[in-house]
């Protein structure tokens, strides 16, 4: 919850409950230990303590163009859809969201459906983000829904190059094999096991790299059932946000009402007729304020996605964006 919203509420209800920390709208339930908004909080206070609601109910993604549209952050109990056409760097956005969680010192789980685990890890390294410490410190899990879709998984593993083999060995303890990725219960249980191992409640992030690929495995209604289930058991029960990516044109994807939030990504020549620029906007986000506008962005290794304004010369971004030594690099 934003400071401004909290200020507005406490101005109207100046007393805060000593258990749940929310404003007390009426006469408090008093005891020798404090003041409470309800009998439930008064009784619960004798047995437990409640964390500050702001500590886990909203997160800042750490992704510049996305945060620019979300002044109060993302509700932590959200299932968020990244909906975009090919070429919008949708996959990079999903990887960056996981990396920013690791940067905050939180755990992350990546459900890898479209790529083998080593290719998913390589996406981090392609951006200069070293995840080996997170793997060794037990803060990152990869749910492998890809390898056992191959006709000969063992042959695939044997033919990896030295770097991929090294990554696979280094990450072995952090990779969760899904033997039958067409079984939504096995996929879900593998996710729950990873969350339990990493003690992910009120912390961290889950990303799913491709609902399109999941659709090819589970088919229509089963995908929606899977998404509905993990929304309830992960986001709503644990306050762990889930971010899932899908192609905007996929008519077989789960119905949009299943998601708490939708981020649209598109290619446009609206600002510069000779260039196809990338833009994103928040179409909806339940329980949060967002700015109703498109943000133009680009991607740069190490920096990730960055925004640039409508008055920025796009040629400057593409000429200078990859050279950190150039002083006119847009920020």
From TrEMBL:
Family annotation (InterPro entries): KaiC-like_dom, P-loop_NTPase
Superkingdom of source: Archaea
Name of this protein: Recombinase RecA
UniProt-listed Pfam families: ATPase
Species in which this protein is naturally found: Natrinema longum
UniProt keywords, alphabetically: ATP-binding, Nucleotide-binding
Gene Ontology molecular function, alphabetical: ATP binding
KaiC-like domain sequence ranges: 60-294
Organism ancestry: Archaea, Methanobacteriati, Methanobacteriota, Stenosarchaea group, Halobacteria
PANTHER family in UniProt: PROTEIN GVPD 1, UPF0273 PROTEIN TM_0370
């Amino acid at each position: 919850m934003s400071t401004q919203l909290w200020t507005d509420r406490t101005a109207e209800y100046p007393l805060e409950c000593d258990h749940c920390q929310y404003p007390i709208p009426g006469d408090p339930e008093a005891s020798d230990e404090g003041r409470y908004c309800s009998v439930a909080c008064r009784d619960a206070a004798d047995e437990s303590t409640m964390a500050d609601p702001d500590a886990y109910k909203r997160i800042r993604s750490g992704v510049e163009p996305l945060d620019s549209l979300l002044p109060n952050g993302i509700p932590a109990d959200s299932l968020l859809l990244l909906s975009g056409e090919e070429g919008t760097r949708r996959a990079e956005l999903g990887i960056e969201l996981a990396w920013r969680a690791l940067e905050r010192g939180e755990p992350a789980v990546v459900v890898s459906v479209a790529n083998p685990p080593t290719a998913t890890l390589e996406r981090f390294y392609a951006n200069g983000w070293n995840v080996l410490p997170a793997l060794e410190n037990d803060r990152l899990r990869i749910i492998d829904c890809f390898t056992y879709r191959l006709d000969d998984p063992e042959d695939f593993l044997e033919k990896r190059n030295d770097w991929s083999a090294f990554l696979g060995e280094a990450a072995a303890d952090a990779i969760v094999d899904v033997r039958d990725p067409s079984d939504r219960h096995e996929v879900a249980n593998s996710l729950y096991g990873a969350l339990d191992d990493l003690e992910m409640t009120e912390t961290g992030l889950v990303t799913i790299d491709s609902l399109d690929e999941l659709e090819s495995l589970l088919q229509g209604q089963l995908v929606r059932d899977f998404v509905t289930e993990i929304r309830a058991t992960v986001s709503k029960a644990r306050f762990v946000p889930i971010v899932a990516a899908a192609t905007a044109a996929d008519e077989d994807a789960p119905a949009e009402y299943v998601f708490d939030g939708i981020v649209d990504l598109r290619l446009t020549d609206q600002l510069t007729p000779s260039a196809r620029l990338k833009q994103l906007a928040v179409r909806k986000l339940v329980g949060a304020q967002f700015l109703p506008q498109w943000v133009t962005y680009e991607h740069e290794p190490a920096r990730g996605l960055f925004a640039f304004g409508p008055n920025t010369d796009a040629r400057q971004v593409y000429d200078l964006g990859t050279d950190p030594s150039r002083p006119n690099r847009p920020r």
